[in-house]
């Protein structure tokens, strides 16, 4: 990545499965599952992050610091605007009687 380009960050789709598997293999990491964001440089996937557990995989043969930073920023922004349960639902969850289990 040059100093003047920035990675494209977007949600992964089913069409990205091969690229994500290749990236995980390059990084010697388990594939990401669930909702995933990926960073591309000139159409090549160079890094990705799981929105569920925050794990990041990246191509170890490329300079991926800016891509990983962009992924972290986008994931943080998505978490900030994620819909939260209503106050009523949260309070009901706190005061729900314990479930009895038959012995």
Notable characteristics:
alpha+beta; 103 residues; 33% helix
Give your account of this protein's structure.
- The chain is of the alpha+beta class and 103 residues long.
- It has one domain.
- Helix content is 33%, strand content 19%.
- It is built from three helices and four strands.
- It has helices spanning 17-26, 65-80, 87-94; strands at 8-11, 36-41, 44-50, 56-58.
- Strands 1-2-3-4 form a four-stranded antiparallel β-sheet, sandwiched between helices.
- It is elongated.
- The model has no long low-confidence stretch (mean pLDDT 87).
* N-C termini distance: 62 Å
**Which structural class should the secondary elements be placed in?**
alpha+beta
> Helix content range of the residues, please?
25-40%
**Sheet with the most strands: spatial strand order:** 1-2-3-4
Number of helices: 3
Walk me through the topology.
Layout: E1 8-11, H1 17-26, E2 36-41, E3 44-50, E4 56-58, H2 65-80, H3 87-94
Antiparallel strand pairs: 1-2, 2-3, 3-4
What is the gist of this entry?
33% of the residues lie in helices and 19% in strands. With 103 residues, it is an alpha+beta fold. Strands 1-2-3-4 form a 4-stranded antiparallel sheet, with helices on both faces.
């Amino acid at each position: 990545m040059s100093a003047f380009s920035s990675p494209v960050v977007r949600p992964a789709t089913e069409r990205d499965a091969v690229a994500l598997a290749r990236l995980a293999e390059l990084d010697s990491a388990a594939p990401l599952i669930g909702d995933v964001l990926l960073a591309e440089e000139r159409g090549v996937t160079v890094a990705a992050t799981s929105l569920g557990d925050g794990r990041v995989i990246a191509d170890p043969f490329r300079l991926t610091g800016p891509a990983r930073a962009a992924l972290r920023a986008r994931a943080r922004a998505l978490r900030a605007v994620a819909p939260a349960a209503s106050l009523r639902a949260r309070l009901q969850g706190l005061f729900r009687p314990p479930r009895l289990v038959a012995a």
